[in-house]
């Protein structure tokens, strides 16, 4: 569905079922250079099991208007504006990579409006390698190749796809190519600049699930430890689940494991 | 920090799309000879049907062996995915029916495989889909043929049987000016000689029966989606951009901006038209693809030598092979097919039909049959076989004469091939003198 958020048109994917304000809401926040379509399988799973899904294209991404926002803080504010626009008082926030930082910061800003928090492929800080930052700015096709090489495990770069008949890396490449000029560079710079993650974690007031890819090279499990430690001490606590054999692109590489982990956690299991 | 790199075609041809079997450790792709797949429980079944999780339900829609083939050709072509179907013709039919319905229109190259010409010229008009055929070398003809209902441009990398080289970047640009995709039949080049998606095409099809298999034992087709065409921005493809009541009310472009075409083609086209590929055929075609890069190099080397041999013979009036400097598309081939212009060529014998029949009868190594792309050398007389439904005028327009002979040059010893051709040419000469 489409509606104006912060004075720009925004697109929200609802997982194949109409948005129902009577059901618990869950916001799925995509990562750098992506759009809502990275959430297809988990979004449909949640939407068919009692949740109202809101998977936005962030400003300047996919079908949403406006320009890409330059900071995690402004993206977190935009998530608040999204909840206002849809008329949702409380929601679970789920984010992948850059989206996990947005979800974390939004949960810290809106502790009373956040039911549960799921951070996928996350780490704070989330430094982005200088060659990737400069490639995203000056040579996007090189940046796309770097991201594919580091986000997908060797097995899924060359072997069988988790989605029969498709090439996960080619799908990711085309998705990044479709974003407007400069979007990836803006997103990665926002990740790199975000330094308030541990401070934000201390303000979270709901249970958190950290999903880590066993073979994630972008945000390896050890990089998530400071975040886990910080979240363990907040009222809701935090736990880590490892997605076996998966890299940073774990939503694409292990859609069943990721979808089931999110659903179980949101169901309170 | 290491530079990112991708795998070369030789590696992809052997590995792409397949991981060693996790249950038994099988290195080769297993043949999943099953029509259907057991659901662990009712919830799992519902989740598969609702696309809440990927997986297989019924082999008409998808199969693990076919998936290896689909992912392998997608990797070789640089596409986001592919669909394996029963034949190359089924791939063309699937592409067209996914994109359009009655009242639509196609602009196609005049130099097409006879079977494709039949579908477009005779069969589809019965279902309300018209085609305008154009000179593939004339950009203005492509442009002028566009109508409000046009939904697809279609051509062959190497036009059968005159071996016209399609100027993919130029034709793709014209197609995109009119907000429609370009579909390229790349059967005669394979991804080892040309990757049409990298030149601007949007969709690629193969008759996998030909060079991809190479052995001539399995009929099959493949349809590859490049994932670049923006169906939403085009606004001309409601099958991809509006909710489909026949499948959960899904708006395919909303579901997946980059793979909308594949989603609809599989979820509707395979489901309803049912032209699925047998997993056995998928396995056999995979065996062929493993050696495709090696074979194509050998095919091209033999074809080039055979073309030069024929070109030097007094009884041969003209050889159509873009690798020869006399071919009108020679310079275009050098640009778009730098590793070789394939292994199919045609030539005109002096002496017309009588000479052509005697030539074919005199051959011992070349097999007279209606196919191309086998590891074995093949020969056919188009005017009496593949193109027999075309009028004399249409034949002439497609560059075919009564004495035109088409060769698919195989992997035999080159001296054996040239000796066989000499034998045929001698027989033709004797027939002309009689």
Word description of this protein:
The complex is a heterodimer of chains A (269) and B (434). Chain A has 269 residues and is α/β, with parallel strands linked by helices. Chain A has one domain (2-266): Rossmann fold. In chain A, strand 5, helix 3 and strand 6 (114-120) form a beta-alpha-beta unit. Chain A has helices at residues 40-47, 72-86, 98-109, 130-138, 140-151, 154-158, 168-178, 183-193, 197-203, 225-232, 250-253, 255-266; strands at 2-5, 8-13, 25-29, 52-56, 91-96, 114-120, 208-213, 238-243. Chain A contains twelve helices and eight strands. Chain A starts with a strand and ends with a helix. Chain B is of the alpha/beta class and 434 residues long. Chain B folds into two domains: 9-288, 3-Layer(aba) Sandwich (Aspartate Aminotransferase, domain 2), CATH 3.40.640.10; 293-433, Alpha-Beta Complex (Aspartate Aminotransferase, domain 1), CATH 3.90.1150.10. Chain B is built from 18 helices and 14 strands. In chain B, helix 8 (190-193) links the parallel strand 7 (182-185) and strand 8. Chain B is globular. Chain B starts with 8 loop residues before the first helix and ends with a helix. The chains are: A alpha/beta (269), B alpha/beta (434). Chains A and B meet through helix 1, helix 5, helix 6, helix 7 and helix 12 of A and helix 1, helix 3 and strand 1 of B.
CATH class of the largest domain in chain B: Alpha Beta
Our count of domains of chain A comes out at 1
Report the oligomer.
Answer: heterodimer
Structural category of chain A is alpha/beta
Q: In which order are the strands of the major sheet of chain B placed? A: 1-9-8-7-4-2-3
Secondary structure: number of strands of chain A: 8
CATH architectural type of chain A: 3-Layer(aba) Sandwich
Radius of gyration of chain A: 17 Å
Number of domains of chain B: 2
Chain pair forming the biggest interface: A-B, 39 and 53 residues
**N-to-C span of chain A:** 30 Å
Shape of chain A: globular
Class from helix and strand fractions of chain B:
alpha/beta
**SSE topology string of chain A:** EEEHEHEHEHHHHHHEHEHH
Uncertain spans of chain B, ≥5 residues at pLDDT below 50?
none
């Amino acid at each position: 569905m489409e509606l104006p958020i912060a004075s720009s048109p925004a697109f929200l994917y609802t997982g194949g079922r109409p948005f129902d304000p009577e059901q618990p809401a869950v916001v799925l926040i995509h990562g750098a250079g992506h759009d809502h379509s990275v959430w297809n399988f988990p979004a449909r799973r949640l939407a068919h099991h009692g949740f109202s899904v809101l998977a936005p294209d962030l400003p300047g991404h996919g079908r949403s208007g406006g320009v890409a926002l330059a900071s995690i803080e402004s993206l977190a504010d935009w998530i608040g504006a999204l909840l206002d626009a849809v008329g949702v008082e409380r929601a679970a926030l789920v984010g992948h990579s850059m989206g996990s930082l947005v979800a974390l910061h939004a949960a810290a800003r809106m502790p009373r409006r956040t039911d549960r928090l799921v951070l996928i492929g996350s780490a704070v800080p989330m430094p982005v390698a200088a060659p990737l930052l400069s490639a995203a700015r000056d040579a996007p096709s090189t940046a796309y190749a770097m991201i594919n090489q580091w986000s997908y495990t060797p097995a899924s770069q060359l072997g069988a796809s988790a989605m029969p008949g498709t090439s996960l890396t080619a799908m990711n490449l085309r998705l990044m190519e479709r974003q407007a000029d400069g979007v990836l560079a803006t997103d990665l710079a926002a990740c790199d600049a975000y330094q308030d993650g541990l401070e934000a974690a201390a303000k979270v007031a709901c249970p958190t699930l950290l999903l880590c890819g066993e073979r994630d090279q972008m945000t390896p499990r050890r990089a998530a430890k400071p975040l886990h430690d910080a979240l363990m001490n907040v009222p809701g606590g935090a736990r880590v689940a490892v997605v076996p054999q998966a890299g940073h692109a774990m939503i694409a590489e292990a859609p069943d494991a990721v979808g089931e982990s999110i659903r179980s956690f949101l169901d309170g299991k | 920090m290491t530079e990112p790199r991708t795998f070369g075609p030789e590696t992809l041809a052997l590995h792409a799309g397949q991981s060693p079997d996790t249950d038994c450790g099988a290195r080769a792709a297993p043949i999943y000879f099953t029509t259907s797949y057991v659901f662990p429980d009712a919830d799992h079944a519902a989740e598969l049907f609702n696309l809440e999780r990927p997986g297989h339900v019924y082999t008409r829609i998808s199969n693990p062996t076919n998936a290896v083939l689909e992912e392998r050709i997608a990797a070789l072509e640089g596409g986001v995915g592919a669909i394996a179907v029963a034949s190359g013709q089924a791939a063309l039919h699937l592409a067209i029916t996914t994109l359009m319905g009655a009242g639509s229109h196609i602009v196609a190259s005049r130099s097409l495989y006879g079977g494709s010409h039949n579908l477009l010229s005779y069969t589809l008009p019965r279902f309300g889909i018209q085609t305008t055929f154009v000179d593939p070398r004339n950009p203005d003809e492509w442009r002028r043929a566009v109508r409000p209902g046009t939904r697809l441009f279609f051509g062959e990398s190497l036009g059968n049987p005159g071996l016209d080289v399609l100027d993919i970047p130029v034709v793709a640009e014209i197609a995109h000016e009119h907000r429609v995709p370009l579909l390229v039949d790349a059967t005669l080049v394979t991804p080892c000689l040309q990757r049409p998606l990298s030149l601007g095409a949007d969709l690629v099809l193969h008759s996998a029966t030909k060079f991809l298999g190479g052995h001539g034992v399995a009929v099959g087709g493949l349809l590859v989606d490049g994932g670049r065409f923006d169906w939403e921005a085009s606004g001309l493809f409601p099958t991809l951009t509006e909710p489909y009541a026949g499948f959960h009310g899904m708006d395919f472009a909303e579901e997946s901006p980059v793979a909308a075409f594949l989603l609809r083609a599989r979820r509707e086209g395979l489901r309803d038209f049912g032209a699925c590929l047998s997993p056995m055929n998928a396995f056999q075609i995979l065996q062929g693809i493993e050696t495709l890069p090696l074979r194509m190099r050998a095919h091209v080397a033999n074809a080039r030598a055979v073309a030069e041999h024929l070109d030097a013979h007094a009884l041969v009036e003209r050889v159509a092979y873009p690798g020869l400097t006399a071919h009108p598309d020679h310079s275009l081939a050098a640009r778009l097919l730098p590793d070789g212009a394939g292994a199919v060529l045609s030539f005109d014998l002096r002496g017309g039909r009588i000479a052509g029949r005697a030539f074919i009868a005199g051959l011992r190594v070349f097999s007279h049959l209606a196919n191309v792309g086998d590891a074995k050398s093949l020969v056919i007389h188009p005017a009496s076989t593949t193109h027999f439904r075309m009028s004399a005028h249409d034949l002439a327009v497609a560059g075919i004469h009564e004495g035109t002979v088409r060769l698919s040059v195989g992997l035999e010893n080159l001296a054996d091939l040239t000796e066989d051709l000499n034998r045929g040419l001698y027989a033709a000469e004797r027939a002309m003198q009689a």
